[in-house]
Amino acid sequence: MVEASDEDLMVAIARGEQPAFQILMRRYLPRALGLARRILGNDADAEEVVQEALLRLWVHAPRWRPAAAFRTWFYRVVVNLCLNRKRRAPFAALDDVEEPIDPGTDASVEFETRQTEGMLAAAIAGLPERQRAAIILTYHEGLPNAETATVLGTSVSGVETLLVRARRSLRKALGPVLEIK
Amino acid sequence: MRIARFRRLLDTYGSDLSRWPPLLVQAARRLVSTDPAAARELAIARHLDALIVGYMQRGPTGTAQARDAMARRTLAALGGPLPPQQRHWMSGWLPAVLLEFDFAPAWPRVAALAGIAGLGFMVGLSDLNLPGVRGMAASSGGTDSDLSMIVFDQDPLSGLRP
After folding, report:
1. Which residue has the higher pLDDT, A105 or B26?
2. CA–CA separation, B60 and A39 (whole Å)
3. Do residues A94 and B62 lie in contact, with contact meaning Cβ atoms separated by under 8 Å?
4. Residues A15 and A48 in one domain
5. CA angle A44, A50, A51 (to 5 degrees)
6. Within a 10 A sphere around the Cβ of B32, how many other Cβ atoms?
7. Do A50 and A40 touch, CB atoms closer than 8 A?
8. Beta carbons of B60 and A64 less than 8 Å apart
9. Which of B41, B61, B65, B98 should one mutate to test binding to chain A, selecting the residue with the greatest count of A CBs within 10 A?
């Protein structure tokens, strides 16, 4: 059962097998939390969205049909819940928890790196939600544009437009940093 | 391929040429090898992509403990009895795409649209014999008494309405 594919597990879940649900849940929980956290910007909303997505997975499993890969379908559920959600907590850039400085690195280089990441975090936080979702699905999940389009419920050209606008915004925000290299 | 189009393609597909449409890759490589400005644009795009990938790989929060705590809380919330699965008799043919949509906010608009559409069909198919309409029909010389007579003008030759 542990090595079963996502689709095989969904068939088992559709029969009401809770162990299969536990396996699939643990398999996708970290990535779903990461995806939701990056789109919504706070832990509380991300946890609620992922809980809701997993509950929907369980409740509606008997109706699921493998028209697309399970991953694509599940990410679509998570992303739609994120985009439809009214944020109760403000979006916060994800570098709000400082990690200790590695004593082996040059302090000035470390400082410059953190400053750049802070600028990038702020720029990503400032993107419209769908552009941010497109960037996250492309860079965090490594999805091709066609799969990102399915997850976002739009066309490939729609995704390309989102990515063009997002990349231009990020490039504009990081302009001097990018030019130096 | 010109530099402006190359810049647009970099914004569309990123700096990894393996993600580009195959038909464009050769032209892009040729431009980069011959145009220093294109090579510079590619370098900037690669730098941006590297920064974004590095940022994304740091994880959803700053520490592994925080990520583990999020996962434990989510698992704990789902550890109790699960709700019943939906096995409605129509579930065999309802498309799975319905699962991911939250219809709640759309129901008022959908109902209003359905009501207006239904009203439009009723008006179009009914023969409304309203007093005001009969008066207008009489004054215009027409014999129609349905609502269409106030929508369409009479044909000047035949006196008929569409």
Report:
1. B26
2. 10
3. yes
4. yes
5. 90
6. 19
7. no
8. no
9. B61
- Do residues A71 and A108 share a domain? no
Rounded distance, CA B117 to CA A20, Å?
46
> What is the model's pTM?
0.69
**Residue B122 in contact with partner chain A when CB distance is under 8 A:** no
CA distance to partner chain A, nearest, from residue B113 (Å): 22
CATH number, domain of A118, equals 1.10.10.10
Cα A132 to chain centroid, rounded: 9
CB contact under 8 A, B52 and A59: no
> Under DSSP, is residue A73 helix (H, G, I), strand (E, B) or coil?
helix
- Between positions 16 and 45 of A, the ones with CB within 8 A of B are 16, 18, 21, 25-26, 29-30, 33-34, 37-38, 43
pLDDT reported for residue B133: 54
Contact A140/B56 with Cβ under 8 angstroms? yes
Tokens of A73: 């379908």
Residue type, A168: R
When CB atoms are compared, the residue of B45, B71, B82 closest to A29 is B71
Q: Are residues A86 and A106 in the same domain?
A: no
A31-72 residue pLDDT tens: 898 888 888 888 888 889 999 999 999 988 888 777 778 999
In a mutational test of the A interface, the residue from B85, B87, B90 whose CB has the highest number of chain A CBs within 10 Å is: B85
Q: Both tokens of residue B4?
A: 């402006």
Cβ–Cβ below 8 Å for B96 and A60: yes
Sort B46 into a burial class: Cβ within 10 Å, 0-12 / 13-18 / 19+.
middle
> What CATH number should be reported for the domain holding residue A6?
1.10.1740.10
Find the helix or strand (DSSP H, E) in which B127 lies: none
For residue B59, give the chain A residue with the closest CA.
A34
Residue with tokens 């207006």: B116
pLDDT score of A96 more than 50? no
- The range of the structural domain enclosing residue A153 comes to 93-181
Contacts of A65 in chain B (CB under 8 A): 95-96
Write down how long chain B is: 162
